Batch of 2 targets.
Target 1
Amino acid sequence: MTIGIGLIGASRIARDTMIPAMRNHPECEVVSVFSSNPERGKTYAAENNIPHAASSLTELLADTDVHAVYISTTNELHHQQVLAAAKAGKHILCEKPLAMNLNESQEMITACHEAGVVLATNHQLRVGDGICKMRALISEGAIGKPLAARVFHAVYLPDYLQGWRLNNPSAGAGVVLDIVVHDIDMLRCVLNAEPTEVVSLSQHAGLATHDMVEDGNMAVFRFDNDLIAQVHTAFTTRYADNGIEVHGSEGSLIINNVLGRELSDPVILKNAEGEQQFELTQHSIDDKTIYLFIDAIQGQGEPGCSGEDGERSLAAALACLESARTGNRIEI
Ligand code: NDP
């Protein structure tokens, strides 16, 4: 059966990334879009070859051709839109951060369980081939006991994204809810461990236009296997590289250029025998996210990142923000 997807939010990420990924799946079809501005919704539908523009969320959710929704509105809207979609019996792929706080995420997860619908969070980094390989090597003991990790994910926010991410705290602006939440999700997956506490410092380096919005952050997380992980994120650095390193008692694993959507570098393993590189198949992380989501809807396996995983990663990001705000070490 073809799964019809309704888009909630006429967003850039839907247009540039997720609609193409949906169209790369043979059993997935984009059937409708809802925008809070009906005129923009119609234009968006026409420009993106979407058959229908719904003039209200109720109309989109009442459409029997819509079996699932992809929610990519600004972050403060995810909660109410997930609740409405669950009530209408639609499966849900929701953008990150899953919600603005843990009361909201709890309610969303419960509503989806009760409605019997799939709730997936779009933390796509964890499904990447390099990250999956790194996780497998760590669990096989390739680096001995994992002791420390480092994620370097400082970017320059492109001009076209310099809107609500920099000036609207009530929409969940700032680098922590935008990027740290992805990085901690990836670390949780790679390490197969949970963060237990965090200390962090935020920065206001001139790009964010609101006092309450950070445009840089450095955080150190402790995990329940006693590993410590350093995470550097920013919107302000034009020439920084990105990558992840995990250092263990018997070796180190490194992947560079793994935190964007382009193909990552190979996984590098360094140990007493020297250096080994693992070349990867390199599936698109967004295609893989959609494949796993459609499989989960069809009762075959779990989505790439569940609602529960989205919530745990959100909890760590919120603790990171609180640490920066209060100057305290925060338990997660
Ligand atoms: P956009 O700013 O493109 O879209 C967010 C909302 O803004 C849309 O829902 C739309 O409202 C409104 N909007 C968009 N364009 C215009 C415009 N030209 N004029 C007026 N309103 C407009 O956001 P993003 O696509 O960057 O992000 C959306 C969500 O996706 C966020 O939750 C973000 O965190 C997440 N995201 C996730 C990524 C990932 O890697 N997983 C990457 C990028 C974003 P309406 O609903 O009314 O149409």
Target 2
Amino acid sequence: MLPTSEYILAIESSCDDTAAAVLHNQTVLSNCIANQAIHEAYGGVVPELASRAHQSKIVPVVQRALAEANIDKKQLTAIAYTQGPGLLGSLLVGGSFAKSLALALNLPLVPVHHMQGHLLVHFINQEGIPFPKFPFLGVTLSGGHTQLIKVNDYFEMELLGTTLDDAIGEAFDKCGKRMGLPYPAGPHIDRLAQEGNPHAFSFPIPKLEGYQVSYSGIKTAFTNFLQRNLNKNPNFISEHLNDLCASLQYTLIQIILGKIEQAATKEGLHQIVIGGGVAANSELRKQLTQKARNTQWDIFLPPLKYTTDNAAMIGISAYFKLTQNKKGKLSDTSNARLKF
Ligand code: KG4
Ligand code: ZN
């Protein structure tokens, strides 16, 4: 039975974004994010700095989310937080904050799986956009994960395949770093690729059995390719930056598109639901949209504000947990490697 009226404060702190959102059932009233610029100087997320930054940002972000939603904390009916997976120090800040607030306000606590959130974000009310129907093929593409998932129900998710090594976002970021791009490099590569030729250079696509993917081989191949060319021409990167970005992006996307196609066909799943930061990639969105035109597939791409880490995805997951009476306890622990 669906609860009639839930006002949920959701907190997401699994990596380097401190985020808070307020939802009324499936409607997002506010969705606030404080990015941590501090990591740019290091070319990647420094876990200790991330947890310290969460500590200083969490109170103002939560206050902003309540103010933007025009909701007083006394109106809240539940507190949700990301239990895992993620960086333990970062998860602990959001988890401890959520527990303290739930205790102080005497509200139910709802722990949420971050990757489930990336997929369940498609169940947020958006005018004119239908919800996916179960079962569907969920594909999570982020800085830490690359997963193909058979989603039978909100919390019945079957992992079909995953990366054997690096995640797709990690490959974008690490290859971007080799080209001297700032962290996270994914959005920069996306932008620079728009002026480049995706067929200027070619990189190997790994041939793996089943639904597994691998992104570390291309990182090595790309690094070696850059080095060989830099030895001949020290300006190779700057002279070919757009083509390098377009060709790299093309290959990274072909790797996952091939697997999506294979899984959709073999599993007989024609709704493809994409989530995670890399779902913002314009070439991936273009290719999938084209695919939907030429096949029977229905493609669900999240709005850009719900691609990278956000708390609205945690709030919507909590809403469905509440409808199934799946509440958490104060003794639940944050888990860096939380499984489905
Ligand atoms: O889901 P997310 O915000 O955090 C994790 O859970 O990891 O994903 C972050 C990842 C980063 O690797 C970032 O480079 C990538 O998403 N990303 C993109 C784009 N926007 C973000 N990658 C390619 N193209 C983009 N437009
Ligand atoms: Zn994420």
